[in-house]
Amino acid sequence: MTSEKIEAKVTHHFRASPERVYDAMTDPEKARLWQEAWMVQAGLKGPIVRFEMDVREGGSFFYSDMRDGEEAKHWGTFLVLHRPTKIQHTWFVDESEEDQLSLVTIIIEPAPDGQGSTVTLYHEMNAEWEEYLERTEQGWMKMLLAVEGLLEAEG
C-alpha cells in the first residue's frame, strides 16, 4: 500500500448561484434526484437501493445501487460544510479502503462575471488508483452535470 496521493480535479460553471448549488448538493431529497440522474447519464440502470444523508459536520452519507446484480456502495463522512462555499467529505466504495484517506473537496465560488457560480471538485486518493484517475474525473463531471440538470429543471 502506498501513501503517495493523486488528485482528480473537475471544474464546472453553473448558471445557478452558489447558494442554490450548495443546497442542491446537500439537501437529501435533491441529492437523491441528481444521483438518480447521474446514474442515467453514466449508463447505469439502477435502481438506488439505499440512500441516507445526515448533513452535518461529522454526519455520514450512504447510497447504493444495483450493477450487474450486485450492490455498488458509496459512503463517507461530512468533514466541512460551509454554506455556500465548501463541502468536504470522505469517499469510499469498498470496506478495504476505509484505512486509506479518500477526500473530496468541493469549492463553490461566484462566477467571475457575476453570473452563476463555478464549482471545482478535488478528489484526493492513493496513487495506486492512478489508472482510474480519468474515469474518476469523468464520473465526478457527470455528477456535476446531474446537479446542473436538477437546478435547470427547478428554474
TrEMBL record:
Gene3D superfamilies according to UniProt: 3.30.530.20
Name used for this protein in its record: Activator of Hsp90 ATPase homologue 1/2-like C-terminal domain-containing protein
Pfam families the record matches: AHSA1 (PF08327)
Entry similarity comment: Belongs to the AHA1 family.
Residue ranges occupied by any Activator of Hsp90 ATPase homologue 1/2-like C-terminal domain in the UniProt entry: 15-146
Domain of life where this protein originates: Bacteria
